[in-house]
Design a protein that fits this description.
Strand content: 15-25%
Largest sheet: 10 strands, antiparallel
Number of strands: 21
CATH architecture of the domain at 371-500: Beta Barrel
Structural class: alpha+beta
Mean pLDDT: 93
């Protein structure tokens, strides 16, 4: 599936600047046992995520509408938003559901009825047959996905794409189809999906600061680009688990929730794959009669109606199935039909584990014999495709913290990296012509992994991405290698040689 090429050194930051000063109302909290969940089993679940899955950022587990476990791997926090990628799709289809409930459109409307002005001069029979329902179920009839980059995606580019299959007969994961849902909501309501959902979903659920990327026309991207907190993901899951009801109010018709989370189309036959269990209205069916929204590199909203449970996860992982396997193998056995006896010892161990979670820091020692000869020196790189011009290391805190000064594309970027703790800051990251945020929250650690090599780990903590920099010094030169944890393209990002001035 095609997505924008995105990494830490070039994160796509096409962000709407509107935020909402809402009180982020939390879920009630509970010990696990009163909700029929074993603290020992939850500890096993969290420990398995920590040990087996490289790149966990945050997890929240709910049973019977109460949070029974929550934790974030430092430097990630409960308070920060996190990029959702395709988990945004489930929010977009929710906006369509509200619009349908308000009589603004029907899922059986032909798409061209709403976008006649953007249609090709001689639309094909298949394009004429495409309905809103087909946008929702990823069965538009496309063989190849239309463009989805923010500077190109629009109704005209979507409708220009050939439609070789009869809509409704061919499942093709299609982020541009979700953009069309966003564009459709904006067309029939006069509001972006962000603004439209604010009084209908975000405000009632207490989702306080959603941020959504837009295309060059000001339309929210729909298929990706939304940022909310881990707890906000859990709120969406609980909302769907409660069939569109929240605090005694039926916000979204239960009939829509039933349709959206049911198997509307087939997408494979592998019984062991959670990507082959069927697809609804921008929700995946899962094994164990569950359903979910998910996004690239491990953003999950997992709803388990049989257990009355929800799990929200943010991460930066390469193997998304592996995370779901841990949920099925470790969380499900921890759940029981009725209240369990109190287990204060296990509950204490669980709390301790959740409080100690941390992304692995940069390895190594706080200094080396070479350090005094390479700090406070500027190393300059020859012209290169990455735009990296120079790097300089400036020590403070008796050398246990380094300020890394980078010149890139004519701009200076500075961040601090600590030997024994994450140093937080903000860093401007290249986001292209449509970028609206000047910088991103980051955190970094460092260590000397050899006498001549400094390793720096840099996390952009509202995203799945971190980079590991290795700077190997020899004489008056430094070799800079940079590897990302995950990326839509190559994870190898830099391999440069710099010369001391």
């Amino acid at each position: 599936m095609k997505r924008p090429i995105t990494n830490l050194s070039g994160i796509l930051l096409v962000l709407a600047t509107t935020t909402f000063p809402l009180a982020a109302e939390p879920f009630p909290r509970s010990l696990p046992e009163p909700q029929g969940v074993s603290s020992e089993g939850l500890l096993d679940f969290v420990s398995a995520l920590d040990a087996q899955i490289e790149g966990m950022h945050g997890v929240m587990a709910l049973r019977h509408g109460r949070v029974i476990a929550e934790g974030w791997w430092k430097p990630y926090t409960a308070e920060h938003n996190h990029v959702l990628y395709s988990l945004s799709k489930s929010f977009t289809s929710t906006a369509v559901g509200f619009a349908v409930a308000e009589g603004r459109l029907s899922i059986d409307d032909p798409v061209l009825d709403h976008f006649a002005g953007d249609a090709p001069t001689d639309p094909s029979a298949n394009l004429k047959a495409m309905r809103v329902r087909d946008l929702l179920t990823m069965s538009t009839g496309h063989q190849d996905e239309p463009p989805i980059a923010p500077d190109t995606v629009c109704a005209k580019s979507f409708l220009a794409q050939p439609v070789p299959h009869l809509p409704g007969t061919h499942f093709k994961y299609n982020t541009a189809a979700t953009f069309m849902q966003s564009a459709l909501v904006q067309k029939v309501t006069g509001q972006t999906v962000l603004d439209y959902l604010t009084p209908r979903l975000f405000e009632p659920l207490g989702i306080g600061h959603p941020v959504w990327d837009r295309n060059f026309q000001g339309i929210c991207l729909g298929g990706y680009g939304l940022r909310v907190r881990t707890e906000d993901i859990a709120k969406l899951g609980q909302f769907y688990l409660q069939n569109g009801e929240w605090k005694g109010r039926q916000l979204l018709p239960a009939s829509w929730v039933e349709q959206a989370t049911a198997k509307q189309v087939s997408n494979g036959s592998n019984p062991d794959s959670d990507w082959n269990q069927g697809y609804g209205f921008q929700f995946w069916r899962c094994r164990h009669n569950a359903f979910r929204g998910d996004g690239a590199f491990g953003q999950y909203c997992i709803v388990m109606p049989d257990l009355d449970a929800v799990i929200a996860i943010n991460s930066g992982v390469r193997d998304m199935q592996a995370v779901l396997n841990v949920v099925w193998d470790r969380f499900l056995p921890a759940c029981h039909a009725s209240e369990l006896p109190a287990n204060p010892g296990a509950a204490t161990r669980l709390r301790s584990k959740l409080a100690s979670l941390e992304v692995s820091r940069a390895p190594g020692e706080p200094t080396s014999q070479l350090a005094s000869r390479v700090v406070n020196r500027r190393y300059v790189f020859a012209a290169n495709d990455s735009g990296m011009q120079s790097v300089e290391l400036i020590p403070d805190d008796a050398g246990r913290t380094l300020t890394v000064s980078v010149q890139r594309e004519g701009k200076e970027m500075r961040f601090r990296a600590g030997f024994d703790k994450w140093q937080a800051g903000r860093l401007p990251l290249s986001g292209g012509a449509l970028a609206e945020f000047p910088d991103e929250p980051v955190a970094a650690t460092c260590g000397w992994t050899a006498g001549d090599t400094l390793t720096i780990k840099l996390c952009a903590i509202e995203t799945p991405f971190h980079q590991t920099w290795n700077l190997r010094f020899e004489g008056d030169q430094v070799r800079l290698d940079c590897e990302a944890n995950v990326a839509f393209g190559s994870t190898r990002q830099l391999n440069l040689v710099g010369q001391a001035e």
